[in-house]
Zn-dependent dipeptidase, microsomal dipeptidase (Deinococcus grandis), 348 residues
Amino acid sequence: MTLPDLPARVAAAGLVIDGHLDLAYNAVLAGRDLTLPLDDLRRREGPGARDVATVTLPELRAGRVALVLGTLFCLPRGDAAPGGYTTPAEARAQALTQLDTYRRWQDAGLVRLLTPGPDVAAHLHAAALDPHGTPTGVVLLMEGADALRTPDDLPFWVDAGVHIIGPAWKRTRYAAGTGTPGGLTDAGRDLIRAMHEQRVTLDASHLAEQAFWEALDLTGDVIASHSNARARVPTDRHLSDDMLRAVAARGGMIGAVLYSGFLRPGWQRGHPPATRDDTRAMLAHLGAVAGWDHIGLGSDLDGGFGQHEFPDGLDRAADLTHVADLAPPGWRAALRAGNWARWLTRPR
Ligand SMILES: [Zn+2]
């Protein structure tokens, strides 16, 4: 199979690619057994669960979600996270435990850890031939770089299969982040330079705006795995139109994040979900500004939210395919998986 055929094969098979799921975080820090069918996990957790589960590994396979960017997400200690890390060593321990979780799932035949390029192409080809019989592929993404004790730790994580790093979540030792304005630190500049040299993609989601522009002076290999348009939902969690255009101009991807509060301004927990029109309008803005060929899904379905926090029509991971139907007809397959497939198999 030649690479130009790949998006067509992926589209014909109805495959889905999701640019952001926190699978191992949910297993380790939230104690969820993601090897269960989703309905079994929901029964186990009961109707009173704060975040009603939407993602398990069998659910992804049932939904033809052939590949995800799966995070190593280190949670800093905070009011809502008394078990979070306070030191680089503790952050590293969190990331190592999550890495081990993905490896154990792989050993059990439940996921496949993948490297961008021919490895991803071969996997998607197999998934297109047998969507329900092929384990979901995972490309590892580190969200929040405090697990690197110094930038000298980067080769270790590259060897472990981390291909994408988002330096910030909130503020880290490397960069200012969501709700914490500012730029890169000296260590952050060293990290971005090392990432560029070692061909690790920068994930700009959660970077504060000043840090975003400073980082783009140091590398052009950039995506935003789970961010929307600030023009529609005005917080620093999302990208300005200039930032969206900058990611697209460098060949990068923007994963649309599907939390209701990131689709409808002013939405809060307990409100009715964002509507299909809210989702359609956000996708339309992203597509108009960045170009539809740079937009994919970055659902964050398991990023501290649940079934009631997602927009109308999105009850569970198997519904991700329907989100793409909110794009113009000519771009649905591209949004569903084709754009991510092209980016993940690009020559580099
Ligand atoms: Zn995030």
Residues 143, 206, 226, 300, 303 surround zinc ion (CB under 6 Å). The chain has one domain: 3-344. The CA atoms of residues 241 and 289 lie 6 Å apart. The chain has a mean pLDDT of 96.
